[in-house]
Amino acid sequence: MIGSEILAGPDLDRFRAGEEAVFRRLVEELSPRLLALVRPFAADEDDAHDLVQDTWQRVFAKRNAYSGTGTVAGWIVTVCRSVCLNAAKKRTASGSRPAFQSIGDEPVWPDEAAEGNETRRCLHLALMDLPPRERDVVWLRFLRQLSTRETAVRLGVAEGTVKATLHHALKKLQIALQVRAT
Amino acid sequence: MNHLDTDTLVDLGGALDWREDILAHLWECPECRNQIHELGAMYRDLEHEDPVRAGFVDAVVTSLPREPVPASAGVAWVAIKALFGAGIGVVVLGLAAAQGAPLQVDPVILGAAALAGALGAWRLPSSMVTG
User: Fold this and answer.
1) Helix, coil or strand: residue A102
2) Across A51-60, B5-14, B26-35, B104-113, which has the greatest mean pLDDT?
3) In 3-state terms, what secondary structure has residue A62?
4) Chain centroid to CA A165
5) Which of B31, B38, B49, B67 is most worth mutating to test chain A (most A CB atoms within 10 A of its CB)?
6) What is each CA distance from B101 to A127, B48, B92, B95, B104, in whole angstroms?
7) Is the pTM above the cut of 0.90?
8) Distances (CA, A) of A144 to A29, A103, A148, B52
């Protein structure tokens, strides 16, 4: 099965070989979520799409770095975060954008922070900043709606580990929202 | 009394798995009820997706670099086989010339023999070259 979960065996081989069909399915499935994730770093709609496209370019170039131990979606989010932060640094250095307003440890454009969906943006930033394992658990339990048992099987860990990891991850996300509110 | 509609009952039933101990706890525990509200809101925010523009997926897939076709390995094999055949041709010609004395081989004939050997080896299976 090709999807945002863990790629293994032949699917991992096809991913690493850069097979177009595999990448097409990943791009179709994950781009809408990546687009939501990059919003805090993007000046406008064009910029957001460019960041997502840059992410896919980087994913393709670095595809052999995906070990197959976590979800491919979690790994792609890590790549996306790196692309966004690099873009933000370049813009700050060139002075082509206004200075960042800090929310937690992450930069957010002042004009975007004023918009109504700020909570969502902050949550997405916090999600991108979670350690890979915690992000995987949130992804599988919340976004793929797998049970604790299914998540444990996918990640090859005990159910108790899934519960504890999810607890830690959700606490971090809640703290990120509280920081934003203060 | 306004009863809950069927969809809501199904949602609650699936989520709570009809565990009355959980329902009883929720009834008494405002902290857990608050947690449910917060987590529900967080889930809805995380679940958010932005639809990409029409044609975006095609544009991304088209922009990905094409992987080199493994034909380059085939070209290398043809070159190896050609060199192998040319060497055989030269050796055969040398042996043939050694039958008569004095040994005088025209460079044109030597080149032609090498070319013939290379062309012949081109069609040889790789296993014959590698052994």
Assistant:
1) strand
2) A51-60
3) coil
4) 17
5) B49
6) 87, 90, 16, 12, 8
7) no
8) 12, 27, 11, 20
Q: Is A105 exposed, middle or buried (0-12, 13-18, 19+ CB in 10 A)?
A: exposed
Structure tokens at B91: 């050796």
How far is the alpha carbon of A140 from chain B, nearest alpha carbon, in Å? 12
CA distance B118 to B131: 17
Q: How far is the C-alpha of A100 from the C-alpha of A3, rounded, in Å? A: 35
What DSSP line would sit under B71-107, residue for residue? HHHHHHHHHHHHHHHHHHHHHHHHHHHHTSSS----H
SS3 label, residue B19: coil
Altogether, the residues listed in chain B come to a count of 131
- Tell me, what DSSP letter sits at residue A105? T
Taking Cα atoms as reference points, which of A26, A27, A28, A32 lies closest to residue A4? A26
What letter represents residue B79's amino acid? A
Nearest to A140 by CA among A112, A169, A119, A117: A169
**Six-digit token pair at B120?**
């012949």
Distance from CA of A61 to the nearest CA of B (A): 9
CB A3 within 8 A of CB A29: yes
Nearest C-alpha in B relative to A127: B46
Given CB atoms, is B49 within the 8 Å cutoff of chain A?
yes
Work out the pLDDT band at B54, boundaries 50, 70, 90: very high
Q: Would you put residue A141 in left (φ > 0), alpha (ψ -120 to 50) or beta? A: alpha
- Per-residue pLDDT of A153-180, as tens digits, reads 989 999 999 999 999 999 999 888 887 6
